[in-house]
């Protein structure tokens, strides 16, 4: 007697588990472009079963199977040809899913065992960009001499976390939710640091990693290089000024010198003038 009662109880619980009026929400995370299947957990749709899928806050009917006939309503307006309903199970597959398909999907199953509902909270995530690591202060006068300042950046992201790792341990992180913005996260390392650092962007499904190459990005002589090239530029400009001044002076002197020559011996002075003109051009170049 007891045995059969508990058996009945177990049997009833199983029925309840499959067809019960469970009002919990199943969370589904999927990357844009991927396919996702929302399962009914029905093993075989019977002739009198009625399975209906709805989408969004207005519970728009998007797919139905009733008397073993599938009706996709006007789902192509929202989903194009992405929706597919399995006639065996009533499960629904969305292929090549887009971000606008994020939202609440409601499933209603009417069978001879009663009516049940399920809800699926589907979140579609955009592909992750690869983080970029750059030197933070190229003018290097503001950064301390023993440290190299870096920054990790990602552009136009939402629902992601950006983190710096030293080996496997998390150093710092920053998160963004709905808004599509650019994120950057600074890091200070010593020039001689031999640890491995990486900048990681992740959402609940995927991650993208960029490893830091300290020797490439943090060459100690970057500052010196910049200073010496600045000094070279200054020297070059100074040289140009000197040349210009000399040229002007030379021309004035030549004019002064050529004038009396021109007055006294016109033929020779033509030769002198041509010669002077050639010399002057060479100096300017
Ligand atoms: C759906 O999931 C998102 C993100 O996980 C959450 O913010 C939202 O509140 C959920 N909606 C429902 C109705 O559970
Ligand atoms: C240099 O960086 C280390 C971490 O790598 C940090 O502990 C230290 O305070 C920094 N020093 C300066 C002067 O910013
Ligand atoms: C990134 O994803 C891989 C699997 O794709 C996982 O093994 C790894 O732990 C993840 N890394 C981080 C930092 O989340």
TrEMBL record:
The keyword Transmembrane is assigned to this record: yes
Record has Lipoprotein as a keyword: no
Record-annotated Ig-like domain positions: 131-215
Transmembrane residue ranges: 230-248
Coiled-coil annotated residue ranges, if any: none
SMART domains hit by this protein: IG (SM00409)
Signal peptide: 1-20
Sorted UniProt keywords: Membrane, Signal, Transmembrane, Transmembrane helix
Pfam families xrefs: V-set (PF07686)
Domain of life assignment: Eukaryota
Name used for this protein in its record: Ig-like domain-containing protein
Origin species: Culter alburnus (Topmouth culter)
Top-level taxonomy: Eukaryota, Metazoa, Chordata, Craniata, Vertebrata
